[in-house]
Each structure stands twice: as structure tokens, then as C-alpha cells.
Design a protein that fits this description.
With 277 residues, this protein is an alpha/beta fold. Helices cover 41% and strands 22% of the residues. The strands form two sheets. Strands 1, 2, 3, 4, 6, 7, 8, 9 and 11 form a nine-stranded mixed beta sheet that branches. Strands 5-10 form a two-stranded parallel sheet. Helix 3 runs parallel beside helix 4. The radius of gyration is 22 Å and the shape is globular. Belongs to the PstS family.
Length: 277
């Protein structure tokens, strides 16, 4: 009897081990860019419907948080709305002896949000940069009413924060810029504040108006639309990336291959982003 029980326990342990192994092999973790959360959740939702044995867990936190998680081994895929920094690549190399794998997976237009009651409707890139650097502080300086400009931006771990700083502000942000934990929070703040201005992914612009952006004083103002972002006439466009420690294998590779397929890329436009090609 004891021998039978021991054999039964042994069989159960083997079955449990196989079950745990199967679960582990078919679970994919994705972490990082808040800009990409809506898109990644939709990808995960559709993919899991087609592959019931696969679990995909998507969380945000910012591009920097996602890349840090990739480096410390707590996520399979890091979403980022900016390229990896050389310092991050070095950390990855030191830990895993690899430079990582960069996969551009979508395009995004970075919108400048204005309150719908704001009389200003277009700005040059230079003016936008000067506003967020604190060099232009009153709306009358850019054709608006005589009132102080109120700034809303992302936290420093955000890839959107870094991209906007490097490509638009080109210096430090104004100390008066209120940092908020996510693009949706910025949109909500500008929606409630007639004197507010913020920035973030074009897909989030609900209840606010998109500022038309001019390359310079002589250029026309361009709004972020599917067409202008695709043909790159809108001045503030960027790629969105997935990063991995090494070349993907197994279910992770299958998921990424599907994202880059015609079916996966078609989903991008349904949530307000744009295909990578």
C-alpha cells in the first residue's frame, strides 16, 4: 500500500512539474512604455483569443522602467517609445553578454494638447520647445490671451519625456512643468485647464484639441493624422520599439512574428497608432 502511495505521489509530482513547465513556456511578460499600453493590450487580447494556451501579461510604468525590467530579468519584452540609451545597452551587455534586440513595431505622432477653449491653434516647433523650457511663459507671446501658460508633462522615466526633450525642448524642462504619471493624466489635466498645454501620443487626444505644428515660421501648421504621420509631413513623429535580451524563440517569437504580420499591423490603426511600414 505504501509503495502504491509513493508511486502515486511521484506521478502527481511529475504531472505538476510538466504543468508548471508548460505554463512557464507559454507565459509572456511585456512591460514599459505607457504610450504603448493600449496597443500592447490589444495585441495581447487578440493573440490570446487565437492561442488559448498562451498568457500575455502587459504592464506600463514608462520606457525606462520597462528597460530596467529587461536588464534585471523580470520581463521578456520591454516596450519603449524611445531608443535604448548607450548606458542601458552597456548594462545589458554586462549582465547577459548581449547587446539586445531592437524591434520597431509601430509609428506614433507625438501630439501637443491644447484646451478646446484656447484661441491658439498652431505653434512652431521652436515655440513649443521654448514654452516647455520656460522661455515663453504667457499665451500672448504666441498670439493668445494675456495669461500665464500652465505646463503638463511626463515623469523622467517616460520615453515620451525623453523623446520630447531631445527633439523639441532641446534643453531642460521648466521647473514649473507639472509631471503626471501617464499620458491619460496629461490629457485630463489639459481638458480641465483653459491655460494648459501638454504632450503625448496622438491616440490619447480625446476631449482636447491637437495643436497644429509648424516646422518653422514659413511652414504650414500640420495636425497629427494617419496620413501626415505616415508620410512624415507631421513634424513630431517617432517609432515605437520592443526590446529583448536576445533573439526571440518559442512562443515569444511567435507573438512578435504575429505583431509584425499584416494581421498584427492592422490592429495598430484600430487603436490610433500607425503601421511600421
Amino acid at each position: 500500500m505504501k509503495t502504491t502511495k509513493i508511486k502515486l505521489v511521484a506521478v502527481l509530482l511529475v504531472v505538476m512539474a510538466i504543468g508548471f513547465s508548460f505554463t512557464s513556456l507559454n507565459k509572456i511578460t511585456v512591460k514599459g512604455s505607457d504610450t504603448m499600453v493600449i496597443l500592447s493590450q490589444k495585441w495581447a487580447e487578440v493573440y490570446m483569443q487565437k492561442h488559448p494556451g498562451t498568457t500575455i501579461q502587459v504592464t506600463g510604468g514608462g520606457s525606462g522602467v520597462g528597460i530596467a525590467a529587461l536588464i534585471n530579468g523580470s520581463t521578456d519584452i520591454a516596450n519603449s517609445s524611445r531608443p535604448m540609451k548607450s548606458s542601458e545597452v552597456e548594462k545589458l551587455k554586462a549582465r547577459y553578454s548581449t547587446l539586445g534586440v531592437e524591434i520597431p513595431c509601430a509609428k506614433d505622432g507625438l501630439s501637443v494638447y491644447l484646451n478646446k477653449a484656447n484661441g491658439v491653434s498652431e505653434l512652431t516647433i521652436k515655440q513649443i520647445g521654448q514654452i516647455f523650457a520656460g522661455k515663453i511663459t504667457n499665451w500672448k507671446e504666441v498670439g493668445g490671451i494675456d495669461a500665464n501658460i500652465r505646463l503638463y508633462g511626463r515623469e523622467s522615466s517616460s520615453g515620451t519625456f525623453a523623446f520630447f526633450k531631445d527633439n523639441v525642448v532641446k534643453t531642460d524642462y521648466s521647473p514649473s512643468c507639472q509631471t503626471l504619471p501617464g499620458t491619460a493624466a496629461i490629457v485630463n489635466a489639459v481638458k480641465k485647464d483653459k491655460l494648459g498645454i501638454g504632450y503625448g501620443g496622438a491616440a490619447y487626444a480625446e476631449g482636447v484639441k491637437d495643436c497644429k505644428v509648424k516646422k518653422d515660421d514659413k511652414s504650414p501648421g500640420i495636425a497629427p493624422t494617419a496620413e501626415t504621420i505616415k508620410n512624415k509631413t507631421y513634424p513630431i513623429t517617432r517609432y515605437l520599439y520592443m526590446y529583448l535580451k536576445s533573439r526571440p524563440t518559442g512562443e515569444t517569437k511567435a507573438f512578435i512574428d504575429w505583431i509584425l504580420s499584416a494581421e498584427g499591423q492592422k490592429i495598430i490603426t484600430s487603436v490610433g497608432y500607425f503601421p511600421v511600414k
